[in-house]
Amino acid sequence: MTRSDPHSYFDETQPRTRDWRLRLRVDFDRKVLHGEITLGFAAPAQGVLDLDTKGLTILSAAVAGSAVPIPHELGAEEPILGRRLRLNLPPAAPGVTIAYETSPEAVGLQWLSPEQTEGKRLPFLFSQCQAIHARTLLPCQDCAVARVSYEAEVQVPEGFTAVMGAGPAGDAPAEAGWRVFRFRMPQPIPSYLFALAVGELAGKDLSPRARVWAEPASIDKAAWEFAETDSFIQKAEALFGPYDWDRFDMLVLPPSFPFGGMENPRMTFLTPTLLAGDRSLVDVVAHELAHSWTGNLVTNATAEHFWLNEGFTVWAERRILKAIRGDEAAALAWTLGQKDLDDSLERFRAQPELTLLRTRLAGVDPDDAFSSIPYEKGARFVVAMERSVGEAAFDRFIRDYMARFRFQSITTETFCAFVEEKFPGLLARVRAEDWLHQPGMPADAPRFASPRLQEIAGLAAAWKNGPASSAAQILKLRPAELLLFLQQLPRELSAPDCARLDRELSLTGRGNYEILVQWLCMAASAGHEPVFPRVREVLSSVGRMKYVRPLYQALGKTPAGRKLAREVFAAASPTYHGLTRRVAESVLAEQREEAVPGAR
Ligand code: BES
Ligand code: ZN
To answer: Looking at the domain 292-435, which fold is it?
Structure first.
């Protein structure tokens, strides 16, 4: 037995699946998928095959293309991994066909009621498989080293549209009252990039190779917000090499989507909180697009090497940003990222092992290990290498790196061997050991400065004692600048400070969620109760964990805030995504422990 991924029953010595043929029927009444999947092997196989499943009911298993049943057994439920499905293949099996059903509690799916959509007419379904939730949708080798191409048929009630992280392949014949969408994904992907969404959707072309999908009520707004997408693709191709996925389409989800974006190939999923009306939050699009290279082409072998995906992608996102919006905008993004990094280092003060880039996660749920550290520490490590060899040489390196490992899933160790081959001595020079294997940040980590950053820091330092006239200057700041200004204000603001800030800058009414949530967190921490209704609104509708966690944390700072947090959670949690609910629960649990002295 050779298991290389602590989060999968995948066994390297067993047959490898190479492709999937999938049929799904979407049952909105019972909140389950009825599925039939054929896993095709790279070569005819026999013997034991272990698959990952979680919450799946297995109805039958047979040799692909025949009725010969395959003996199979579900193992005991493991809290993180789920249940191993062990099949005993007869000789020369070309593949296996498994009929199954998902559970209404599948973490990889969220079933929304019509009220949770903008149209309020139809329910909505979306998937989120990264890191290890594909196994709640289908039985598979749920690990990044086992790549598959696939074909799928998705049967939905009439009136719904299905989209996938795949190419559309027309309709198939359907029974009355139903519609069957077909998809084909020719490029081999890791299971965590499998993606499906079903709802009332409209699409609008942005360019010959990019289209945005959204609920009909926001499709025009979405098309305007993301109109620059093709120019991002062009910049990214110039930096990282050819775009290998044919199309770059995006789907704007209902607000409960737990992430800012998810790089599902050919169909990036996005939170509607990006629709600020001024294109100020499109760095998330640049990020998900950059994953088309760093992540989707060259993939982390397991969650223990997650920084290879996210650190490189944050670096790549900011290179795109620099090419499009200039040096100042990029420096600003790096500085905003520093705050996320500091917050995460603080959060993991008692778990320094989670602040390494190369992590050890046996027995750790990847969702619990998630933080800004692989993103921002990882990206700074990439910059340390880039600065050491110079931008031009590093640009050539990135293209070589993509070319060498395209459609492969690699470890930190493989990456380091490649760096050593291309730039002998570089790892030692930048002290890669410290970056990868030591907690916290190296003392000589790259810093980012610019004249504009200085000015904004100056405005923030002067605000508290400054004249009201400085407000005029602050109001002229661009959205990312205003965000930085807010972040750089003294941590301990009083409630009267907050009242003045809101009077001068009208923050509670902002539609830019980065600014709004930063402000609400500051004000809630200071116990400035006039913002409570807005906090309640946000926590009742928006599921993006990046916002939900700090908002609940901020409410925890005062007794009135804690009361609001409990109330909102009780009312809203049934509408939360499973991941969001877990995050909110853990923040509330910490607050209870802190409130009861000696409980820990
Ligand atoms: N791949 C991530 C989202 C993710 C990570 C989902 C781990 C599940 C497990 C995506 O690319 C991402 O990083 N999104 C960020 C965007 C930001 C860094 C620009 C987000 O959602 O905030
Ligand atoms: Zn990412």
So the answer is: Neutral Protease; domain 2 (1.10.390)
